Amino acid sequence: MPYATEENITDLAVDRWATAHDARLATIMTSVIKHLHAFAREVRLTEKEWITAMNWLTEAGQISDDKREEFILASDVLGLSMLVVQMNNRFFPGATPATVLGPFHIDGSPAVPYGWDMSGGIEGTPFFVAGTVRSTTGDPLPGAVLDVWQADADGNYEAQLDVNEARLRAKYQTREDGTYCLRSIVPLGYAIPMDGPVGELISRTDISYFRPSHIHFCLEEDGYERLVTHLFAEGTNYIENDVVFGTKQELITKFVEHDSGVAPDGTAFDTSFVTAEYDFVLQPIEDC
Ligand code: BEZ
Ligand code: FE
Fold first, then answer.
1. Ligand 1 proximity of 152 Cβ (cutoff 6 Å)
2. Which of 27, 239, 258, 260 is the most buried (most CB within 10 A)?
3. Where does the pLDDT of residue 287 fall: very low under 50, low under 70, confident under 90, or very high at 90 and above?
4. Measured between alpha carbons, how far is 33 from 222 in angstroms, rounded to an integer?
5. From the CA of 282, how far away is ligand 1's center (Å)?
6. For 159-209, what is each residue's pLDDT tens digit?
7. What is the mean pLDDT of residues 265-286?
8. pLDDT tens for residues 203-245?
9. For 102-144, how does the pLDDT look when each residue is reduced to its tens digit (9 = 90+)?
10. Domains defined along the chain, listed by start
11. Which residues contact 277 (CB under 8 A, 6 or more apart)?
């Protein structure tokens, strides 16, 4: 093997990593090397800049734990997460589009019945989301699971707090006719975590670090593609410049304010509440 020079180092590294035992790993690693080297050459990366980048990555690792996902956040604000979502969720016409998972999903939310109030008494305006889960054929899907999570009025997810029980998250299931109904509190827009290396980098730009008001869903049904998505409030702040590029027109829905009346779960209110109606459309898994 020749010794490395500025000219041959990329080929040497590519050849070495092409020996990966798994063919896909070899494809990925050789491409990563080519693009990283091309980037370093293009900007004439200095040693000081290189060590700054290494320290930034170290800090991102050090601030991460089983609840904080600084690398996912970095991927989100760089637009990489949304690019991967778009490439892997080429949806059938009419299917509900996917968007970013984000760093705050927690596995194992409790299974709860139709209309259950997942706010657990946390302060906020009562909020109902109701509708039907359907197939792209139009058929309603009974028994589909809707894993739902959201932030509180201060913009905090359970994963950001020191709590021991499920907070503002639950798993609902559609009824025989494909309908679902959840109760929570109205979600508000919030700032992404700015106290780590991602926030430090963003603070050196003009980037708005807010997300528009939304609630998260992960839908699962046998024979259908899993759908990770959100519903966004129509007309809410930051809808045009979501820091993680997650907004999609088809996911923007009216959050209707009521002064009083009967909520979708049948509860009568003499105070205000908010409702949203949304039918999710899942696409069947296609045989290759
Ligand atoms: C979220 O919506 O939970 C989220 C997504 C990406 C980055 C930060 C938060
Ligand atoms: Fe969120």
1. no
2. 239
3. low
4. 39
5. 23
6. 889 888 899 999 999 999 999 999 999 999 999 999 999 999 999 999 999
7. 95
8. 999 999 999 999 999 999 999 999 999 999 999 999 999 999 9
9. 989 999 999 999 999 999 989 999 999 999 999 999 999 999 9
10. 9-75 (no CATH), 83-287 (2.60.130.10)
11. 129, 130, 131, 253, 254
Task: Measure the CA–CA gap between 135 and 223, rounded to whole angstroms.
Answer: 10
Ligand 1 centroid, distance to 51 Cα (angstroms): 28
Q: Which ligand is nearest to the CA of 103?
A: 1
> Helix or strand or coil: residue 183?
strand
Q: Is 198 in the pocket of ligand 1 (CB under 6 A)?
A: no
User: What is the enclosing helix (H) or strand (E) of 231?
Assistant: strand 227-233
Give the bridge partners for 282, in sequence order: 135
Establish whether residue 244 lines the binding site of ligand 1, counting it when its CB lies within 6 angstroms of any ligand atom: yes
The answer to whether 85 touches 251, Cβ cutoff 8 Å, is no
Radius of gyration, alpha carbons of the chain: 22
Residue 66 CA to residue 103 CA, distance in Å, equals 10
Joined together, the tokens standing for residue 50 give: 């290189």
Task: List the one residue out of 77, 105, 101, 79 whose CA is nearest residue 192.
Answer: 77
